[in-house]
C-alpha cells in the first residue's frame, strides 16, 4: 500500500472521529425553538425557552441553557409522543406548578403513557411538585384511582395555586406560546 493511500486513510479516519463528536453534541443555544423545551444538553443541563423583545419591537424566542442539571440524563430531545402524552406545551415560556391544579393536565401527566414512558418530563415535574411539598408518585396514584380526591389532597398538603396576576401587556408576552418555526 502506498504512503499516500495510508495517509488518506488516516486522514479519513481522523475526520470521521471529529465529525462524529461534533454532530452528536447537543447545545441548547443551537437548538431550534420548537424542540428547545424538555431537551437536555450534552452537559446534562436542561434547555429552556426564553422570550425577548427584538430590535423591531416584536417578541422573539431563543433557546438557552439553564443551571439545572439532570442526573443520569444528557443529550436528550423529548419526543413529540411524550409531549402529547404528558399534555405539556413545548412552545410555552416557563413552567409553573399551577398546572397540577388543572385536572386534565394531572390526568395526562399521571397517565401510563406519560408516567411510564417519559422519564425526562416526569423528572422535571417530580422536582417541581417536590418544591411545592407534593410527592408526585403519591399524587399520580391517587389521580389514577380517584381524581377528585387527588385535587383535594393536593390542596390540603399546603400547595395552592398561585395568585392570578393582572393581565398586563408584559404578562401576556411572558406567557405567550412561541411560534414553532420549522427546523428545516
* Largest sheet descriptor: 2 strands, antiparallel
Q: What is the count of helical runs?
A: 8
Return Rg in Å. 21 Å
Average predicted confidence as pLDDT: 76
Spatial separation of the terminal alpha carbons: 43 Å
Helix content: 40-55%
Pfam family, one: PAR1
Signal peptide: 1-24
Region (Disordered): 162-184
InterPro entries: PAR1
Structure write-up:
The radius of gyration is 21 Å and the shape is globular. α3 (103-110) crosses α6 and α6 (136-145) runs antiparallel to α7. 43% of the residues lie in helices and 13% in strands. The longest helix is centred in the N-terminal third of the chain and has 21 residues, at 3-23. β2 (45-53) and β3 (59-69) form a beta hairpin. The protein has helices spanning 3-23, 80-86, 103-110, 112-115, 119-131, 136-145, 147-156, 169-175, and strands at 39-40, 45-53, 59-69, 76-77. By secondary structure, it is of the alpha+beta class.
Which secondary structure elements does this structure contain, and how are they paired or packed?
Layout: H1 3-23, E1 39-40, E2 45-53, E3 59-69, E4 76-77, H2 80-86, H3 103-110, H4 112-115, H5 119-131, H6 136-145, H7 147-156, H8 169-175
Antiparallel strand pairs: 1-4, 2-3
Organism: Cinchona calisaya
Keywords: Signal
Pfam families: PAR1 (PF06521)
